């Protein structure tokens, strides 16, 4: 009897030791907003490598994230070495999230961001739940260069496929995407301009645009972030050839693209800077904040007053900002980046009929807050407790 009791006690002690030594099943992610402003649809980025180092017991190929306060499963995305999720933050708010493995995922999201290479036009078109854009890839689009086109939306669901398909129909069946049929439209005119935030080389007091892109690669299609790369390899300045590579990123719930630009092979002499521009439209106003590095253009969408107002904007991080100027066709921000160095900036657009912006003050406040968010990222802490 004593031997049995002794054996049970030993077994109990072993079980206690094993339980106390077993790894925790969850990892906690703390995210703090350091600003005295709210941050809606904030994309939080956590390195997958940092997760693996902190919690080697977690299988990062099968992880799920919950909001700690209300135990709601969140939409997540893995992209390269990044783990992405979104949340809304009040001013100075700190929130906690729980990361764990799962055998059954409750949230199977339908992506509200997308990017497509559209044939036969060879356009790249991309969108989220707020806005859509495109850049042209062939002369089927007419006399155009590398400017960014804007498709304004007043629905939250994807429209790219539907609008291209309808516009391609012939005769009375055609559904022109230049007319608002209840979802929005392509009212924007780009032509050979930079459009809504296109990039160019600035030299000798003028912009030098690239022509149409020569190749592309789609890197992500959601559910939180879309991302793609385009290359330009047929351009020159003063007879000297150069190449350009651009990476566009658009997140759900946002109106601005993150645009990374890299010019290479530039052997021209003299001072060379970088320009990002907003095309001048009929009856528009220009607004700017040089301290925060944003430029805004606001005015009627077109001659039909029922289509209300469209705003475009650019933000350049303060470490790049040089000056704001204009030429005959554009309002421009000049950046101090040199050739053979990557240059990053943000550009996009809004529409009052989307329901997200009522006035130019709303749009300019959005650019102000966006710039502040760029300069003051959320503070992310990973812990086992």
Task: Set out the fold topology.
Blueprint: H1 2-21, E1 26-32, E2 39-47, H2 48-54, E3 63-67, E4 72-73, E5 76-79, E6 82-89, E7 94-101, E8 114-118, E9 123-127, E10 131-135, E11 149-153, H3 160-168, E12 184-185, E13 196-203, E14 206-208, E15 215-221, E16 225-237, E17 240-251, E18 256-264, E19 273-279, E20 284-289, E21 294-300, E22 309-315, E23 321-326, E24 330-335, E25 343-351, H4 360-375, E26 379-383
Spatial strand order of the main sheet: 15-16-17-18-25-22-21-20
Shape call: globular
Q: Report the end-to-end length measured between terminal Cα atoms.
A: 43 Å
- By DSSP (H or I, 4+ residues per run), the number of helices equals 4
What proportion of the residues form beta strands (DSSP E)?
35-45%
What percent of residues adopt helix (DSSP H or I)? Answer: 10-25%
**Which class best fits the helix and strand makeup?**
mainly beta
Low-confidence stretches: 11-22
Characterise this structure.
The protein is 14% helix and 44% strand. With 385 residues, the chain is mainly beta. The strands form five sheets. The protein has an eight-stranded antiparallel β-sheet, covered by helices on one side. The longest helix is centred in the N-terminal third of the chain and has 20 residues, at 2-21.
């Amino acid at each position: 009897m004593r031997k049995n009791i002794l054996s049970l006690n030993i077994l109990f002690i072993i079980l206690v030791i094993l339980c106390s030594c077993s790894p925790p099943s969850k990892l906690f992610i703390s995210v703090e907003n350091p600003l005295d402003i709210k941050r809606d649809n904030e994309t939080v980025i956590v390195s997958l490598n940092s997760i693996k180092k902190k919690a080697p017991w977690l299988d990062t190929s099968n992880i799920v994230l919950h909001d700690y306060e209300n135990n709601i499963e969140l939409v997540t995305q893995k992209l390269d070495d990044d783990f992405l999720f979104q949340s809304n933050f009040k001013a100075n708010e700190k929130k906690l999230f729980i990361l764990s493995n799962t055998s059954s995922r409750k949230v199977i999201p339908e992506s509200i961001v997308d990017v497509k290479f559209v044939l036969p036009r060879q356009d790249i078109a991309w969108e989220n739940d707020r806005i859509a854009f495109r850049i042209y890839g062939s002369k089927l689009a007419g006399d155009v260069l590398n400017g960014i086109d804007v498709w304004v939306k007043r629905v939250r669901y994807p429209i790219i496929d539907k609008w291209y398909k309808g516009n391609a129909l012939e005769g009375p069946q055609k559904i022109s995407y230049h007319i608002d049929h209840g979802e929005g439209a392509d009212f924007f005119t780009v032509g050979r301009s930079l459009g809504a935030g296109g990039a160019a080389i600035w030299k000798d007091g003028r912009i030098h645009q690239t022509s149409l892109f020569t190749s592309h690669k789609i890197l992500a299609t959601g559910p939180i972030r879309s991302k793609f790369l385009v290359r330009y390899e047929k351009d020159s300045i003063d007879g000297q050839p150069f190449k350009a590579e651009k990476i566009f990123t658009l997140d759900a719930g946002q109106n601005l693209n993150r645009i990374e630009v890299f010019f290479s092979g530039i052997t021209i002499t003299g001072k060379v800077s970088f320009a990002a521009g907003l095309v001048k439209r009929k009856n528009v106003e220009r607004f700017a904040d040089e301290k925060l590095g944003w430029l805004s253009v606001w005015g009627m969408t077109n001659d039909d007053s029922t289509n209300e107002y469209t705003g475009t904007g650019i933000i350049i991080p303060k470490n790049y900002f040089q000056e704001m100027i204009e030429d005959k066709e554009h309002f421009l921000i000049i950046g101090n980046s040199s050739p053979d160095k990557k240059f990053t900036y943000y550009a996009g657009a809004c529409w009052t009929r989307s329901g997200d912006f009522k006035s130019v003050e709303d749009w300019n406040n959005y650019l102000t807050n966006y710039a502040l968010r760029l300069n003051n990222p959320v503070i992310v802490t990973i812990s086992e407790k």
